[in-house]
Specification:
The protein is mainly alpha-helical. About 65% of the residues lie in helices and about 0% in strands. Helix 4 runs antiparallel to helix 5. The longest helix is centred in the middle third of the chain and has 29 residues, at about 80-110. It is globular. It starts with 8 loop residues before the first helix and ends with a helix.
Length: about 200
């Protein structure tokens, strides 16, 4: 079945809406705080999930367990230091997902959620999807957040050379996703499991 266990589908949908909204709002909020009005003008400084959803990326999150949202437009010319500004904006999304995970994990550690209640599959979905969104976006492949972080940290000349690879990024991602034997899952899986373990106190 393409969507897996249909009983868990509503919880996955809620978790996706939360994870995507928090991720993209964090990008928009950090850019706005650094002086760039573009996200506000584009209507992205919002907690309305509809403005952040990308149809294909959302479908992939449901079907394949990873995906993306509609990118937040930013104009680094508004930043006092554009390299530091881009680093902060790019990192804000994954960090926001990790914060959500830590909050949910803290609730788990408190032991206030009884086994068998509807909150259990919701909490599981929130942990997994936020972890996947954070790890996937931290991959140093264009156009993911990780590529912008790497570009911001590299010396200018190396950053220019690295950014020239941007045109090949989607192809690289497609190849990784289509590799047989769930190779992509083996790449991101350990980091996802480590983050979830950290959130629930298993590390």
């Amino acid at each position: 079945m393409i969507f897996g266990d249909l009983r868990s589908l509503p919880y996955r949908i809620v978790a996706i809406l939360v994870a995507v909204t928090v991720h993209e709002f964090a990008h928009a909020w950090s850019a706005d705080r650094l002086g760039d009005p573009t996200p506000r003008v584009r209507g992205r400084l919002s907690l309305n999930p509809i403005v952040h959803l990308d149809p294909i990326g959302t479908l992939l999150l449901l079907v394949a367990g990873f995906g993306w949202a509609k990118p937040v437009e930013v104009n680094p010319r508004y930043f006092s230091n554009w390299r530091r500004g881009m680093l902060a904006v790019a990192a804000a999304g994954p960090i926001a997902n990790i914060v959500v995970m830590l909050i949910v994990g803290f609730i788990v550690q408190l032991g206030v959620v009884s086994a068998g209640t509807p909150l259990v599959p919701l909490i599981r979905s929130l942990l997994v999807i936020n972890a996947v969104l954070a790890v996937f976006n931290l991959l140093p492949i264009h156009p993911l957040d990780g590529s912008k972080i790497v570009s911001s940290l590299l010396p200018p000349q190396q950053a220019i050379a690295y950014d020239r690879l941007a045109a090949y990024g989607p192809l690289v991602l497609l190849v990784l996703i289509l590799l047989p034997g769930n190779a992509f899952g083996h790449i991101v899986g350990p980091a996802v499991e480590w983050l979830i373990g950290l959130a629930v106190g298993a590390r």
